[in-house]
Amino acid sequence: MNRPVDRPGMDVEWRARAGELRTIPNLVSLSRLPLLLAIAFLLDSVWRYPLFALIILSDGLDGWLARRLDQKTELGAMLDPALDKLTALVLFVVLFPRTGLPVEYLALFFARDAFVVSLGPLVPLYGFDTSKVQARKLGKVVTNLQFWTMVAMLVPHVPATRALMWALGAASALAIADYVVFVSRELSDREWIHTRGAAVAAAVGVGLAFAAVVGLLLPEEFRTLLSWLAELL
């Protein structure tokens, strides 16, 4: 009869992680979960506004408390960005149907996140740290636009939501091009990859590909946008 292998090292690690859950910063991070549920049930109430404000407050407070109380943990470093993504996903799912916009707008909102997820296979193959990608400046611009888009959906204000979605799509295309160049340079020492020309080529290529995909998903609205841009120019 095979007996279970005693793995004291793993047991100690598990207990350490469980203990990290009880730190004040991580408890503040986890408070976002009941707040999200409350918003989902109170979408037609004015309470959705203070609840959303509390979510935003907790997002900044947990990091401040971790530094102030010297309670930075490995679990907290993983928990905070994971909850950020979960918050964006849940709020988008519950708020987007209220806008009446085509479901294809999902591509504009989640394009950057889908690309980052697609980099997952690079982790075991090359030991690539995808957190470096998410920390890029254009990536932060996308994250901020996602936040303001959710604010517009929370109100809800459909014209503002639509405009922010298109701005988000454009920022995502630029961010993805930046990611392509960054990842290529991290994985290769070839001289031409590190030139400005390579960066321009990546931006043009990703931009054209992104425009083609959006044009297929939202043909009428894409043509309207192009016409509006042509009038501005």
The major β-sheet equals: none
Shape: flat
Assembly context of the chains: single chain
Average residue-wise pLDDT = 82
N-to-C terminal Cα separation, in Å? Answer: 78 Å
Structural class category: mainly alpha
The count of helical stretches stands at 12
Beta-strand residue fraction: under 5%
Written description of the protein model:
The chain is mainly alpha-helical and 233 residues long. The protein has twelve helices and no strands. The longest helix is centred in the last third of the chain and has 30 residues, at 158-187. The radius of gyration is 21 Å and the shape is flat. The chain starts with 7 loop residues before the first helix and ends with a helix. The model is unreliable at 1-6 (pLDDT under 50).
Kindly list the characteristics that best describe this protein:
233 residues, mainly alpha, 77% helix
Task: Please give a quick description of this structure.
This protein is an all-alpha fold. The chain has helices at 8-21, 24-30, 32-41, 48-68, 74-95, 106-118, 122-126, 131-134, 137-154, 158-187, 196-217, 219-232.
Helix-strand layout with pairing:
Blueprint: H1 8-21, H2 24-30, H3 32-41, H4 48-68, H5 74-95, H6 106-118, H7 122-126, H8 131-134, H9 137-154, H10 158-187, H11 196-217, H12 219-232
